[in-house]
Specification:
heterodimer; A: 158 residues; mainly alpha; 2 domains; B: 134 residues; 72% helix
Chain lengths: 158, 134
């Protein structure tokens, strides 16, 4: 037993003399699943190459730029929602604008990459569009109902 | 890389060339021939959120800014924001450095929504509590 211990200590000191990173290498071997015969320099070169490759493929700045802001769809939906409210005197136009706003909002909600900012805007767009459709619908009914009743009376008379 | 400001600038330019001629034709020519009576107002006597917008446009185009604000504040607000955004971003795209380009913010639209509902409530309160018609 004593001889074995002395032998192993000698081997360790020999290895340490040859490889200045031997101590780190022994620790690293426990967590390293690649080629264990590689020198420490080669391993770290591989790590840095992999890291660089990952950074290039991720394209961090492009990702950040894409996620910035609520998105064109949410803005367009909100504009249609606002227009459907302000054009409620134009009855049918208001309903059409409101419907477009609702459809765009639903498409926006179903998109995977919607940001929290965009989600808030889509909620606002949906509410505005529904209010526009309701007011436009009421105006449409009020505008067309007298003509519709007159038409029914005429058809009854005939 | 295209930013939100770039996209909004080109959309705004499209609206200017398509929408403005139609609006001018309607306000100065079509409004008397094809009047759009507000059914909500004629049946219930209640102002709708869009009531006064046509009069506000007409007042604005004839240079009566305060009158326009009184009829419907969202018209003057929209025109101010539109011109500010388009001119400043137009200068940015033309590389004119001394004009600072406006950034896009969500509150531009939230203020517009607030003004629409504020005007709706304010006009109806004036009408029913103080019998002041706008």
């Amino acid at each position: 037993m004593e001889e074995d211990r002395i032998d192993s200590e000698n081997i360790i000191t020999e290895v340490q003399n040859d490889d200045p990173f031997a101590a780190y290498r022994q620790e690293d071997d426990e967590f390293f699943f690649g080629d264990k015969e590689q020198s420490t320099d080669e391993r770290y070169q591989d790590y840095s190459a992999d890291f660089q490759q990952q950074m290039n493929s991720f394209d961090y700045y492009e990702q950040v730029e894409q996620n910035k802001g609520p998105g064109g769809l949410a803005i367009t939906a909100l504009v249609f929602g606002i227009l459907s409210i302000t054009c409620c005197c134009c009855t049918a136009l208001s309903i059409v604008l409101g419907l477009v706003g609702v459809i765009l909002s639903i498409i926006g909600f179903n998109k995977q990459d919607v940001t929290p900012e965009g989600r808030n805007m889509l909620i606002a767009a949906l509410v505005c569009s529904i209010v526009g459709i309701l007011i436009g619908g009421i105006c449409f009914l009020l505008g067309t109902m007298p003509n519709f009743l007159r038409y029914i009376e005429k058809s009854k008379m005939a | 890389m295209k930013t939100v400001e770039d996209e909004l600038f080109w959309i705004g330019l499209g609206i200017l060339f398509l929408g403005l001629p139609l609006l001018l034709v309607y306000v100065f020519w079509g409004v008397n021939r094809f009047p759009m009576d507000c059914y909500l107002y004629s049946h219930f006597g209640v102002y709708c959120p869009g009531c006064g917008a046509t009069r506000a446009c007409k007042a604005l185009f004839t240079g009566h800014f305060l009158k326009s604000l009184w009829y419907h504040p969202v018209v003057l607000y929209s025109v101010f924001m539109y011109l500010g955004f388009m001119i400043s971003n137009g200068c940015r795209l033309l590389h004119i450095k001394w004009v600072k380009a406006w950034k896009y913010h969500n509150w531009y639209f939230y203020v517009a929504i607030f003004l629409i509902f504020f005007s709706f409530i304010f006009k109806n309160v004036l009408k029913f509590l103080f019998t002041i018609e706008i």
